[in-house]
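User: Predict the complex.
Assistant: Input components as received:
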Amino acid sequence: MAVEYPFSKVIGDMMYASHQNPITDCLQCGTCSGTCPAIEYMDFSPRKIIGMIRANLKEDVLSSNTYWSCASCYHCTVRCPAGIDIAEMMYALKRYSMWKSQFKEGLIGPDFSESFVKMIVNSGRSYEPILAATYLPKYSASAIVQEALTASGLVFSGKMNLFPKKIKRIKNLQNVVRRILPLGETS
Amino acid sequence: MKQYAYYPGCSLESLGKSYHLSTLEVAARLGIEFKELEDWNCCGATAYFPVDELLAYTLSARNLAIAEKTGLKDFVAPCSACFKNAYTTNKYLNSDPDLAEHINYALEEDNLHVAGTMQVRHLIEVFVEDIGLDAIKEKVTYPLNNLKVAPYYGCQLVRPRKGNENVENPRYFEELLSALGAEPIEFESKTRCCGGSLIVTNRAAALDMVEKLLQDAVNSHAQIIATTCPMCTVNLEVYQSQVNREFHTNYSIPIVYFTQLMGTSFGCTPKRLGINKEIIPRALEKSQVEAV
């Protein structure tokens, strides 16, 4: 019979390079929440999210915008007295939610990440206008106009190139990627 | 002439072009050479980690492998996000043989092998630690007297922690600015986040974060904000007008790269420092006039 894995373990397993993360050592002191510059825009504070992970409230965690609102500034990470890399834990939650295709509706983060990866696999370099095309449809009409004005200003001021660059050994890079993700193309 | 393996990163080819230009100009004045890596790829920024962790490290590892082939010792990145990714990847390559083996298996496809032997440095560290403040001071011919500068470190230059350094109150940016004759202000928010890629994925949150930074800089009487990262510059400079609309404010504070300030104090022409590429017009010239 399948054994139910605690959600904290599932998320810990999504952090391969850092060899898990002592999520269960959390003291609930709230230093992370007091530090976080994006907390006002989160459904639940970082402290609460850790508490919820430990309480196995998987669905509530996944359907919140908290981890997609993390800007990866690592301020919580360097301050955590229990040594939890909280910013990395937010990445782990993002990975889990991408993997399960389960996230709060209306978020731009998942689409943005996916487009970014596709772009790099296609050209080897990132290029802002291609990215914009993928997330703009989620904006309101006035925001799109605003964005277009900003972008044309950037091109005219010489800040932005009109055409993307491609690396020379892009075929090799794509083969490198295929050895990591055997299914090949990320979609 | 001391040589470094130089990894410009994607932003320095487009939005951060003036950072690239001023970096090379200042390096030449200081007698160091930045050799750009051949055929480097994107570091993955912050958008790759939500998709696949191993792939994110592999991307940076390819750049490190190319750098190792040059025989040079230091891998220098001017962008804080590129720096953080390369630094972390290098750290894991050294501490986790299993991860290194996985990555090297993938890199075989590009005939590369990574050993994790590069010293990964941020540009500002090279100037402060290797060149040193005294040698920099010697090159200053036009001291930036009375120019009140907010030293904005941002996030990924100082975090996550690398060793025992002071991540809450670093001082080397202030010391560098003083060496140029400028007056660094006490900038409480100097290591607070600019919002990073939230400017794309959560605009409201990012604009709020940018507004708080601008407010603190202005309240602390800064005439100019100096940055060490192209992403910070984009958020603070390009979106300043959106902040003004959103918060009914009237900010017009110039944002410059620290290398542009160095170059200006060395007497380099504005054109060679990419100063004509600023969005907020005549930023540096204006402050220079005020400074004189």
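Confidence is low (pLDDT under 50) at residues 286-292 of chain B.
Let me know if you want any component modeled separately.
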